[in-house]
What does this fold into?
Amino acid sequence: MQTDLADGVARFQREVFPAKADLFAHLAEVHRPATLFIGCSDARVVPELITQSEPGELFVVRTAGNLVPAHAPGADGVAASIEYAVAVLGVTAVVVCGHSACGAMTALAEGTDLSAAASVARWLGHADASVARTAGTAGPDRRSALIRENVRAQLANLATHPSVARALAAGTLTLHGWVYDIRSGRVTDTGPAPAV
It folds into this structure.
């Protein structure tokens, strides 16, 4: 694996970087992404590939299950990244993107025993509202419903962050919920966040 990564770096330096040298020279001095993209840590979900974005266009935060904890006092890497993107970089849009076959949502939909993964279990607690909203759905539709509802719930959590609330009130920020289907490549809009 280490060799594969080293080969990839060598190929980037040899083939990709020279073709985009002017872009990287600009990016060395300017960091102004337009969009904060919050997606899942899943290796199959690559925000820049899905959106066909160039380096510098997306500020990306990836978490297991594309979860966004509601604002709370104290140090939090996700909150710090959101605040930096919105208040300092001035992004004008935030996308929360879930995806098909999400391991986190599958575990919740199927009630997987996570006692051997206590940190994962605690983290997935940020999806409790989504689990509650899909409780009446059964069978294979449960996971799909949970993936969709989770994106909407995370948009609601995102709006609790002061920097996001201020930008929304000022009309300088829009929030978008997406679900990416790995098999088809299709991206669908989840609609607005539920009322909190």
